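hi!! sorry for the late reply, been swamped w classes. u asked for the two structures so here they r. pasted raw, havent cleaned anything up. first the sequence of the first protein and right below it the tokens
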Amino acid sequence: MSEKPQSTMLRKLPLIVILLVAVAGAVYLRDYLSFQALADNREALLAFRDANYLLTVLGFIAGYIVIVAFSLPGATIATLTGGFLFATFAGALFNVVGATLGAVIIFQAARWGLGEKLAARMEASDGMVKRIKDGIDANQWEMLFLIRLIPAVPFFVANLVPALVGVPLFRFVITTFLGIIPGSIVYTSVGAGLSEVFASGETPNLGIIFEPAILLPILGLCALAVMPIIIKALRGKKGL
């Protein structure tokens, strides 16, 4: 028997709420989650951190979760803020924790609303769709790490696609947490140097991740992630 319309709508409700908040955030929050807003409020943020360190950490992580879960503008600014407030290593840890928990929320919402049914349809289908699904299933760990490591893959895409192809939650959490560490460290380190940037009246170089000294090691990690896929493909051809 098919699901009742009310049950189907209930399952899709979290995803609908996320989409509505994302649209509203893109319209109304862009000016509040910006580099200029951070620059204007930096002294107040530092003073509050010094007086309430633990509360600042918890509030920062909660804010990062909301930004990621609802795909709000300002994720990069939030990462810079983590470095600015907590320095590189502590800031990177808080950034990764917040981003991972936020990613889990949108992943679960997408899987609950669409993913399980879509994955079942892909599994039952024939031809190209089934081959794509089987290819992803055979290399889930590698593919999940790869989409996290490649800087050009939007974060919300990397959160939604695994939900739509039936990736297990545990596997999603591990690959998200570990896979976003390199990029998070880069941007957090930029944030840790914002005091000098503010003093000079400049803006941070957010394209630093594409500079050779940063990009090449990340591409090396991508190569390591894709290597098992290539080896499996070569072994499969030899077996024919």
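now the second protein. again sequence first, tokens right under
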Amino acid sequence: MLHHLSFAVTDLARSAAFYDAVLAPLGYVRVFADDTCVGYGTPGSGDKFAIKLRTVVSPPAAGFHLAFAAPDRESVARFHAAALLHGGEDNGAAGLRPHYGNDYYAAFVIDPDGYRIEAVINR
């Protein structure tokens, strides 16, 4: 259904370093970058997620979050650890979430601009 999504960020270098680190364990890389924007996707593809430099950022309220697909449970744990090392805030360590499904394994963090993000595998 979704083609791509972007977040406004106040410090592109800080946010790019954060997303480089947290998305790498999930298999996503920078697919383009310029002075005001960095796009991420799978190697050799177009962007599916981008961060764009803006002077004012107002993340959506609690209830909104973006979940990134993970290839395995280990990558979910690496996503969480990388987020905490690069300015993210813990919002739920890697683990099973049986209230979402028997095999729902996820980690939740808040990025440096206040966006709630997740890495998940559901198998």
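hope this helps!! also noticed smth abt the second:
Residues 4 and 48 are 4 Å apart (CA to CA).
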